[in-house]
Amino acid sequence: MTDNVVSGNNFLRTIVKEDIASGRLSGELVTRFPPEPNGFLHIGHAKSICLNFGLAKQFGGRCHLRFDDTNPAKEEQAYIDAIQEDIRWLGFEWSGPIRYASDYFDTLYDYALHLVRNGNAYVCDLSADQAREYRGTLTEAGKNSPYRDRSVEENLALFDSMRNGEFDEGSRVLRAKIDMAAPNINLRDPIIYRIRKVSHHQTGDKWCIYPTYDFTHGQSDALEGITHSICTLEFEDHRPLYEWFIANLPVPAQPKQYEFARLNVNYTVTSKRKLKMLVDESVVDGWDDPRMPTIAGMRRRGFTAAALRNFCDMVGVARSEGVVDVAMLEHAIRDDLDKNAPRAMCVMDPLKIIITNYPDDKVEWLNAPGHPNRDDLGERSLPFSREVYIEREDFREEANKKFKRLVLGKKVRLRSAYVLLAESVVKDAAGNIVEVHCSYDAASHGADPEDGIKPKGVIHWVSASHGKQATVRLYDRLFTHESPDRGGEEFLDHVNPASLSIIEHCWIEPSLADAAPEASFQFERTGYFVADKLEHTSGAPVFNRTIALRDTWGKESDV
Ligand code: ATP
Ligand code: MG
């Protein structure tokens, strides 16, 4: 992995450095990435992964992967598997086994008993509506629950009955006894255990009560010896509660929570709930649809792990919310692919060229560079024959000087091959051009034409006799609106109707048919493409457009 993950600076690195300098961090730095397995990871999670794993790597520490699985109803094994694959693909490896918050359910239950015994928790029978009323508001203090002063014995007996499944869901909860007048609503006797009669993907039917996220997270950190528990800003108001649990429980360590701003990207939604809606309503073809801002989707689109890591580094880590321009992400992708993707040719809208002075049965294998600036990417061999395809838009019967492609009576160079002169066209009954007849200059391969008249342009091409057919999928941004889910608007209304177009029967240079799934290429003059991860090898080769060569979003295409 490149060092870019740990370059630059951010306030969390500064905190860790200070903690090392002051001796507050005497042992290893231990961080964790704690996804809830209720969907696929997205670009925002990529940032959290780069941050948590990146810090551990920079300071020679450890980063744990812990599934925060306290809400069994929404969680699935498929998500657990996908999340692991995504983290590894991004270039990171967690320390030790995969951990689950549910590994600590026994301990958490003991911690709850500890609070009850110390008079710090009670079973409350208020209904959800009543509890809301008692909670108060931001400006008004809450009221004590009538069940708040139950004796320790009564609470122990009721909590035991909760655990044994004797009560209905929603009829009782266990609450921490903190302060109903606290200005921070999170401290107004928060719920720590709920009755949920559902089986859990890790613990099966062992439990019918489940700890809340707040009662789980900090204690799990403490149990794992996490030194720096990094989360996003929406948990800032939960920090006093996190600290209250750590202070009031016999935990083995004292982790500290730090918050940073979520990554938001324009023209994108970064919420698993909304991404799930796109999947469930078949707006896209699944979580790994190349239009999705999921790690799996971006991977299938042809974004590289290095480019995503670079992007996460470029956006930095802040304490205040902001929106990053998607152009920055696209820049990171182009930058990486420009340097590393081998060149190739693909004709998407073929027009047949017949080279009348080229022998019918002759084939030449012409060498072309794999990459203009990268000798290490070697050379490729292009078959040249009497019939070739060019793009229909690269030929005109008449054109002004700005059109630097093939024009009747004029010359053009075929990339890495010969100069052609267009001599005549063949049209069908409807007047459409079906063939262009050209002559070629046999001395022009790698040399200027002997008559000294240089062609103005270079176009891409594929041999009609040796080329292979492929399907190309052109992807564009999924949303047409800069902030699809802000301002209370219905984000599904902003889906770009033209986010995918499929072009069948494109012509590719033959070696591309053998490209490995997930191999990236720059198709000359048309963009960056990737051999589809799943479908490339099953039938006609399939290439996904990762991104156009230049940023043309919102601009008229040039001639
Ligand atoms: P979502 O709203 O998409 O479900 P989440 O925060 O509920 O996000 P989790 O699975 O709980 O998703 O997140 C795992 C980790 O990733 C958390 O530490 C969370 O703070 C972090 N994370 C989630 N979204 C972002 C984001 N947009 N930017 C940075 N970090 C994020
Ligand atoms: Mg969450």
Automatic annotation (TrEMBL):
Its main localization is cytoplasm
Record domain Glutamyl/glutaminyl-tRNA synthetase class Ib anti-codon binding: where: 341-441
Q: Is-annotated flag, keyword Transmembrane helix?
A: no
Ranges for the tRNA synthetases class I (E and Q) anti-codon binding domain? Answer: 458-532
What EC number(s) has UniProt assigned to this enzyme? 6.1.1.18
Q: Which annotated residues bind ATP? A: E36, P37, N38, H42, I43, G44, H45, A46, K47, S48, T232, R262, L263
- GO molecular-function terms, A-Z: ligase activity
Please describe the quaternary structure of this protein: Monomer.
Q: Which protein, by its recorded name, is this?
A: Glutamine--tRNA ligase
